[in-house]
Amino acid sequence: MSSPTDLPTDVAETIEGAEAASTTVDEGDIAADYLEELLDLADLDGDIEITTSGGRVYLAIEADEPDALRTLSKPDTVAALQELTRLAVHARTGEFSRLILDVAGSRDARADELQRLVDRAVERLEAGAASAALPPMSSYERKLVHDLVAERGFVSESEGEGADRHTVIRRG
Fold first, then answer.
1. Where does residue 52 fall: left (phi above 0), alpha (psi -120 to 50 degrees), or beta otherwise?
2. What is the pLDDT of residue 140?
3. Cβ atoms 104, 65 nearer than 8 A
4. pTM of the model
5. Are 120 and 130 in contact (CB under 8 A)?
6. What SS3 state is found at 60?
7. Cα 73 to chain center, whole Å?
8. N-term to C-term CA, the chain
9. In the chain, is it the N or the C terminus that has fewer CB atoms within a 10 Å radius of its CB?
């Protein structure tokens, strides 16, 4: 069999794209299997949906009963489950995973909370503050904040290191 470098460019790109898609599907399947095992161990019922966007795998766990996943949907618990799932994928594939986990709509709830934080920060800026610092948060959450801030016409940057990394908002 020819290697991709021996093939015409369009064929080589198609093969590389298919390999990347295969890796993404494998990542999602591995993550879903891991999460299903965890749900079984915890004796919780939940349906797992896998989607991809921008080369990133998104997993959502939903349940028919509104409160069935309440304990798992707390922000710190979701972050811990996401990290454990990323580690499980890494152990199987040897590749770093950037998957995003949502449990019972926790991501939407957190996005709403981040919107309120940005709104309050903007109010402080409009009242005359030179800058407004938000509490430390994950890189994913900081990215959401940067997008929300840009939509409002302000600028933001991440400051600090490690667990203390946070976003500071200023006038444009």
1. beta
2. 85
3. no
4. 0.70
5. no
6. strand
7. 14
8. 56
9. N
